[in-house]
Design brief:
31% helix, 10 strands, single chain, alpha+beta
Length: 235
Amino acid sequence: MNIKLGHISHSGIKRDHNEDTYGIDLNSGLFLVADGMGGHDHGEIASALARDHILSSVKNNVPIEQAILAANQEIINSSMEKPGDLPMGTTVAMLQIEDQDYQCAWVGDSRVYKLSKQELIPISSDHSYVQELVDQELITPNQARSHPHRNVVTQALGVTDNSEIKIAVATGKIKVGDKFLLCSDGLTEEVDDEKIAEIMNKHLSPKEIGDQLLILALENGGSDNITSIVIEVKH
């Protein structure tokens, strides 16, 4: 199955450096976005460690969940060797495509979406405080967008022990014409799902879709690092 690909990462307007990263291995069909935790020391190191360790593991046929656990331990070990009051951490969201099937895994609030037949479907569900409130029907999804604690994650690599970390996994089928979006919360903080769907439904290349999403996120405030990978499944 052929794909077209677009990817971009930007520090945003209000951050002086970029703690996001992303990784792509076309041979393994693997795509990954990681968002180093801005309030923690060395977030950019944590996201890079997650990217490199997971890509290397999957290339060597290590199952995705096992690769994430190994990366988590790697970040914890590295964090112990670095000065700082807080451990470094990162979210991770991954998509692996194999023939007509996909597998996603995530920890934290970086997201994976699928656009199929013009409908935007969130594959991932945030590991966050406000998502727990939404799940318990204590607040609405719309209220979650402006909640003061919307950036508080409940799971992240580097800060949660392997015995307690909860890796979420989803699988599904792929059809020609489907599009996928992997992104950090710097995008979804500024651009809602309705606008994401509108842009992804345009007759644009994945690179142009990523550029338009980035421009809109910057226009809406650009309060965080912004990273996206857009994938279109072709014949």
